[in-house]
Amino acid sequence: MLPPIHWEIAGGRAIGPAPFFIFGIVNVTPDSFYDGGRHDGPDSAVSHALQLAEQGAHVLDIGGESSRPYADPVSQEDEIRRVLPVVKALRDRTGGNGLPWALSVDTYKSGTAAAVLEAGAGIINDISACSFDPALKDVIAQYKPGYVLMHSPGRPETMQDKPAYGNVVEEILDFFEKKLKELVVAGVPEQRIILDPGIGFGKLLEHNLDILRHIDRFMSLGRPVMGALSNKSMFGQLLGLAADERQNATQAATALLAARGVRFHRVHEVRLAAQTLNLAAELYNA
């Protein structure tokens, strides 16, 4: 069986041990590609998040701005208005740090990150690698949360405009190596960083497939890797599936990534992912 690991987040708290970690997606948005509008109010979002926790999520990943291709940006004020009440309500439900799940916020904005970290979030999931709002790096260095470092060549509203790479895997490896050094120099503990190659972010189908075929290359940097491909358009392109028909493909891909050593998985259907990953853990190197 795959040996369990811990992950250190804000305040030096460790989540785990677990062979795999599941990020349950909580979209407090009207326009996310898969479930936009289903949980765009605080009460509905909190209820949904607690359901995901019961189903096995280790991390509740709260987002207030859609990052789908060509999505319109959201102001910092609106993003805080959407996510902060959810963070506060879930923080109050935990009764402290004793429960086995943590709060993450999906943001690239320094003001949002500071507000939610001050309110009790322990992780920042950043699609921009601190490039859209450079002040975010200072916030991450100050609070030292768990940090998801993701690759994207541009903002959601422009990232799918003719993305091109010479060698997508090598270019992302170079990107991660540079960004890891920058963050560590700024004061972010390296053990709090995980890597997300950004499936679907400024990448064509061939780029996504190349990344997934060589996912183990990213582990050479010494940090865990996130698989974040839940119900994404690549399954529609490959298999002709609508957004609400991609659950089986998502589970198959999740199992394959788990078998390759990917420890973190960001998903919509937590119950299914927990079943998939528990089975993968039992069969690992069997």
From TrEMBL:
It catalyses: (7,8-dihydropterin-6-yl)methyl diphosphate + 4-aminobenzoate = 7,8-dihydropteroate + diphosphate. GO terms for cellular component: cytosol. Its cofactor is Mg(2+). Transmembrane segments: none annotated. Pfam families: Pterin_bind. Pathway: Cofactor biosynthesis; tetrahydrofolate biosynthesis; 7,8-dihydrofolate from 2-amino-4-hydroxy-6-hydroxymethyl-7,8-dihydropteridine diphosphate and 4-aminobenzoate: step 1/2. Its EC number is 2.5.1.15. One of its GO terms (molecular function) is metal ion binding. Residues 20-278 form the Pterin-binding domain. Keywords: Folate biosynthesis, Magnesium, Metal-binding, Transferase. InterPro entries: DHP_synth-like, DHP_synth_dom, Dihydropteroate_synth-like_sf, Pterin-binding_dom. One of its GO terms (biological process) is folic acid biosynthetic process. SUPFAM superfamilies: Dihydropteroate synthetase-like (SSF51717). Belongs to the DHPS family. NCBIfam families: DHPS. Catalyzes the condensation of para-aminobenzoate (pABA) with 6-hydroxymethyl-7,8-dihydropterin diphosphate (DHPt-PP) to form 7,8-dihydropteroate (H2Pte), the immediate precursor of folate derivatives. This is Dihydropteroate synthase. It comes from Oleidesulfovibrio alaskensis (strain ATCC BAA-1058 / DSM 17464 / G20) (Desulfovibrio alaskensis).
